[in-house]
Amino acid sequence: MTDWHRRRRKALGQHWLVDRRVLGRIARAADFSDADTVIEVGAGSGLLTELLARRASRLIAVDIDPALAAALRERFRGRDNVSVVERDVLALTPEEIVARGGGRLPYVVVGNLPYFIGTAIVRHFLNARAQPRWLLVTLQLEVAESIAAAPGRMSYLGVQVQYYAEPRVLFEIPAGAFRPAPKVRSAVVRLDTRDGVAVDVDDREAFMRLVRAGFAAPRKHLRNALAIGLEVGPGEAEAMLAEAGVEPARRAQTLSLEEWAGLYRAHRRSSASGPR
């Protein structure tokens, strides 16, 4: 790889995972079956690709960089189970990636994700019509912990992800396992998609807007945070919380998904009945 590509990847928040013990541990955690198409996001130099290709019946290596994609094609020339897709993963639906790579559904996702778009990539697959069975990805440790947090340490991102999947932080990765070494800690997180969704709401986008409003001022009590986020009076926010059985002095990070769903239903009833 040229110095130009190294500088470009660093600018994009990409740090190369080069420690073979860590790579092996990720490959072993990727317990896909012969029926799965494996999509590797940000295949880069192909170190992890090589390990995955030993077991995958169909492996699709995705990379946006033309030079890296060309090097991957050359490296895996003659390997019938490996195909390379040179595109921005966010610009394609999972079905398009699978079709371009000669795969089929179901599929799983593995990848060392760039820090600056890691959560966008996770959301891209979870929000898709055709979801993966699971994702096994490297993220910034703080982000991984936020995604997997239980009530008490929840975040808006955690609600977004846990609505669709059950996340687990598998292990941390030391900075020295990367080139260049990042200034933040990293972790491997596994997200098993749910059979359906975590809570029953009639409008996912409206539900997420309510949750986002609740986290508009996470240090404030929910009564005040919802008043700010929904642009309503504190009294109206308190009445909605009372109807949902949620103490107004609680904070957004303490609510479970079930409590958010109850609050959403109370909000819908309140909106339908008009101003009080």
Task: Provide an overview of this structure.
This protein is an alpha/beta fold. 42% of the residues lie in helices and 17% in strands. Helix 6 (118-126) links the parallel strand 5 and strand 6 (134-140). It is elongated, with a radius of gyration of 21 Å. The N and C termini lie far apart (65 Å). Residues 1-11 have low confidence and may be disordered.
Instruction: List low-confidence stretches.
Output: 1-11
Helix and strand content put the structural class at alpha/beta
Q: Over the alpha carbons, how many angstroms does the gyration radius reach?
A: 21 Å
- Number of contiguous helices: 12
Identify the overall geometry: elongated
Largest sheet: 7 strands, mixed
Tally of individual domains:
2
CATH architecture classification of the largest domain: 3-Layer(aba) Sandwich
Distance between the termini: 65 Å
CATH fold group of the largest domain: Rossmann fold
